Fold:
Amino acid sequence: MLDLGCGAGRHVLYFAEKNFEAYGIDISDTTIKKTKERIEERKLKSNAELIKGDMKALPYTSSCFDAVICINTIYHQRKREIEKTISEIFRTLKRAAFF
Structure:
């Protein structure tokens, strides 16, 4: 799962502790550094990966995530930026198979 705008890593840490592959991206060097410290303290390095980046241009391959969460972050952008972010979310999500 990917947490867009992961901030201090609350959701990344939660999912990593539940043995999910958790990824986080945030624009802030400070929050990425703090979250990496928390991941190391809890020995969750194998389940969590963080990068500094922009949610409007995600550095991930298409269809690579089962879930993407974006809590209290996406609305800090202008309408066109929100549209780009939603497009990136859609691009990175795996397509569900419907029968």
